[in-house]
Automatic annotation (TrEMBL):
This is Calcyphosin-like protein. PROSITE patterns: EF_HAND_1, EF_HAND_2. Gene3D superfamilies: EF-hand. One of its GO terms (molecular function) is calcium ion binding. The keyword 4Fe-4S does not apply. The gene is capslb. The keyword Transferase does not apply. InterPro entries: Ca-bind, EF-hand-dom_pair, EF_Hand_1_Ca_BS, EF_hand_dom. Pfam families: EF-hand_7 (PF13499). Residues 39-74, 75-110, 111-146, 154-191 form the EF-hand domain. Keywords: Calcium, Metal-binding, Repeat. PANTHER family: CALCYPHOSIN, CALCYPHOSINE LIKE. It comes from the Eukaryota.
């Protein structure tokens, strides 16, 4: 199960409130992403990945500014440039966007991270680090889905819709990587106060031992 819409709404409201009183550039960017719901940070990651034509997994200043703009992040150019410099630790004029997203991701306790990775491992049946429709067969039961039961959707359509819930709205490719799964659940985690409740939610959703 992806994060509930109630969690998304609560998190978006909370992020918008905090944004009004926040001056730290990294925290402001994090809150702008979380104001879009659980998939907000992952969506920004997708935007950057699309721009990374040579698969170098790095961004220069121009790409960084364009990515923020394309994703609709409201940020002054000067603030964005300062943000870039904070991540360009070696002064090479490039930032590693995986490192950038990990820093941007709301912190998760080790206990939460462990249960998220446990869920990913269960879903990634082939063990190749990516969840696809093939992985979901036999792990995710579609028979209780109302649209499958009334004949409106096929099994594959239910699976695809499920995977899309982890994807950013602009780039749905029907695949979910471990990083995307973590990025998504770090968003869900940000709206849940206690480890106990988060772990219980994950275990119930994914029927983990």
């Amino acid at each position: 199960m992806a994060g509930t819409s109630r969690h998304d709404r609560e998190m978006a409201i909370s992020a918008k409130k905090q944004l009004a009183n926040c001056s730290d550039p990294i925290e402001r960017l994090r809150l702008q992403c979380l104001a879009r719901g659980s998939a907000g940070i992952k969506g920004l990651g997708r935007t950057f990945r699309i721009m990374d034509d040579d698969n170098s997994r790095t961004l220069d200043m121009k790409e960084f500014l364009k990515g923020l703009s394309d994703y609709g992040v409201l940020i002054e150019k000067e603030e964005a440039m300062n943000l870039f410099q904070q991540f360009d630790r070696d002064g090479s004029g490039l930032i590693d966007f995986d490192e950038f997203l990990i820093t941007l991701r709301p912190p998760m306790s080790n206990a939460r991270k462990e249960v998220v990775l446990q869920a990913f491992k269960k879903l990634d049946k082939t063990g190749d680090g990516v969840i696809t429709i093939e992985d979901l067969r036999g792990v995710y039961n579609v028979k209780h889905h109302p649209k499958y039961r009334n004949g409106e959707w096929t099994e594959d359509q239910v699976f695809r819709k499920f995977l899309d819930s982890f994807d950013s709205p602009d780039d749905k490719d029907g695949k979910v990587t471990k990083e995307e799964f973590l990025n998504y659940y770090s968003g869900v985690s940000a709206s849940i106060d206690t480890d106990i409740y988060f772990i219980l939610m994950m275990k119930n959703a994914w029927k983990l031992d």
